[in-house]
UniProtKB/TrEMBL annotation:
<dbReference type="InterPro" id="IPR013783">
    <property type="entry name" value="Ig-like_fold"/>
</dbReference>
<dbReference type="InterPro" id="IPR013151">
    <property type="entry name" value="Immunoglobulin_dom"/>
</dbReference>
<feature type="region of interest" description="Disordered">
    <location>
        <begin position="475"/>
        <end position="632"/>
    </location>
</feature>
<feature type="region of interest" description="Disordered">
    <location>
        <begin position="404"/>
        <end position="430"/>
    </location>
</feature>
<feature type="compositionally biased region" description="Basic and acidic residues">
    <location>
        <begin position="568"/>
        <end position="582"/>
    </location>
</feature>
<dbReference type="GO" id="GO:0019221">
    <property type="term" value="P:cytokine-mediated signaling pathway"/>
</dbReference>
<keyword id="KW-0812">Transmembrane</keyword>
<dbReference type="InterPro" id="IPR007110">
    <property type="entry name" value="Ig-like_dom"/>
</dbReference>
<feature type="domain" description="Ig-like">
    <location>
        <begin position="15"/>
        <end position="86"/>
    </location>
</feature>
<feature type="compositionally biased region" description="Basic and acidic residues">
    <location>
        <begin position="528"/>
        <end position="541"/>
    </location>
</feature>
<dbReference type="GO" id="GO:0002764">
    <property type="term" value="P:immune response-regulating signaling pathway"/>
</dbReference>
<dbReference type="InterPro" id="IPR050412">
    <property type="entry name" value="Ig-like_Receptors_ImmuneReg"/>
</dbReference>
<feature type="signal peptide">
    <location>
        <begin position="1"/>
        <end position="20"/>
    </location>
</feature>
<keyword id="KW-0472">Membrane</keyword>
<dbReference type="Pfam" id="PF13895">
    <property type="entry name" value="Ig_2"/>
</dbReference>
<dbReference type="GO" id="GO:0005886">
    <property type="term" value="C:plasma membrane"/>
</dbReference>
<keyword id="KW-0677">Repeat</keyword>
Amino acid sequence: MTPILTALLCLGSLPKPALWAEPSSVIIRGSPVTIWCQGSLEAQEYRLDKEGSTEPWDRQNLLESRKKARFSIPSMTEHHAGRYRCYYLSPEGWSEPSDPLELVMTGFYRKPTLSALPSPVVASGGNVTLRCGSPKGYQHFVLIEEGEHRLPRTRDSQQLHSGWYQALFPVGPVTPSHRWTFRCYYYYENAPQVWSHPSDPLEILASGVSRNPSLLTLQGPVVAPGENLILQCGSNVGYDRFALYKEKGHDFLQRPGRQLQAGLSQANFTLDPVSRSHGGQYRCYGAHNLSSEWSAPSDPLDILIAGQFYDVVSLSVQPGPTVASGENVTLLCQSGKQFHTFLLTKEGAAHPPLRLRSEHQAQQYQAEFPMGPVTSAHAGTYRCYGSLSTNPYLLSHPSDPLELVVSGEGPDPVPSELKGSAQAQAPGDLTQVQGTRAAGLGRYLEALIGVLVAFVLLLFLLLFLVLRRQRQSKHKISDQRKTDFQPPAGAAEPQPKDRGLLRRRRTPCSGPADAAVKDTQPEDGVELDSRQSPHDEDPRAVTRALVKHSRLRRGVTSPPSPLSEEFLDTKDTQAEEDRQMDTEAAASEAPQDVTYAQLQSLTLRREATEPPPSQEGEPPAEPSVYATLAIH
């Protein structure tokens, strides 16, 4: 029996060894790798074979431990890539070959792209499709999930109509029990162990039913290239981290949440400088640190990039830029070049731009945006853009701004929605969002205006009641004073002693400040002839009347004084000055017996007293006539 036949008969009688590579069987080009072959304690020699080679690739003598051998590769190249097996030799002969080891070198071609359809955030328990693609016509794509004992999955490439090559890998069901992170590669069929650079890692997030956050932009939905764009994702649930995803994007951004106050948190995602690649539809998610499950997605936010087409777009208004409140107007967006859609934006508006399909008329592509009846809420600055259906997020340069002025009544709390005869066409159904926000704002303004009107009416009513009460109080005081000065019926009038109202003195018969009283009817009364000084215009002036020795005429009274009731009581100091003036006049001229009354906002009334008994040596006194004063 020949030695070869003896070896073949002995081959396979011993257990096969184990073969593996460290740190991995997929090695980046230029990196070191170690291959281990482990057999039995009876092993005397280990041999490593590479598939396709006629000679053993390497032989290793035994180490201190006879159980395994090490084969080192200091720098990985495409020549080292291949399929390997190992054997060991024992006194009984050669063992069975180990299971094959695929040693792969990566980094030989450009990296492919990896994305999730429809989104990398999947409802817990749901499925997702991963798409690995490349513009080159590579024949096979490989998907690898990071983690221990994750075997590669291989798919043949498929060519699309656009010339793009791709392979689809279904994944699921997705659960939040662990992280799902993937990379993909491609290779040619004639070199299956030489792969491309790995794609960027793609993490699949398992979302739940927790409350979705809100997503908004601080600059507005239309931005120009080169500007800075900040997207703000916030929630009142108190999420610890947030993720931002762009539709059909390859990956999402994650940011830690900033706690503003109890239960409120947010994260800002800065995209700068803005380029055409930033145009698209965005959503954001929130999650807590102690959970691998993400929230439900936010409402979509469209980011539009202007200045991508140089065709001129114009904006006009009919009947004119200045209209009265309640009229109807139409904004007309036009271009000589073809645009599939026109967008109308209002400066400072919270709602997204409105989109209408263009119509071809009179060698112009145009869209009409009717408005009406207009209110002051429609006033503002408008601009128009054009876009193509191939990428609705890329816009033309804006039209010249158009200022719409609404005259007439104040602002209508519920502005009319812009309507178009053409069917609205927009990513994310922008017109529905605009209608909902406008209705909510209208209800808020209606309530606010109602409260303000009620407050003003209440204020006027309160002011009216205060003024009326003050007027009634003055009338009550006046009536009370009249009652106090009116003597009781049948009672004699008291002698006027106070305030010097009635005096009998020796004074000059005439004076510029006195009013002379002529005795025209000695029996029935007197006639009062009032003469006032030029100082009578002073409300504090005093009117005097000289009364001769006769009776006052019945029913003759002085007219009511127009002076205010606040001057009814004359100050004592004024009365004292009058006494001094009377004394000085009596000293300078011949005295005469006269009776006078000092009149101050009062009405004369007839009174007479009997003269006192005459003493011896004195002429008999004539009866005294005086006038009592009653409040008018």
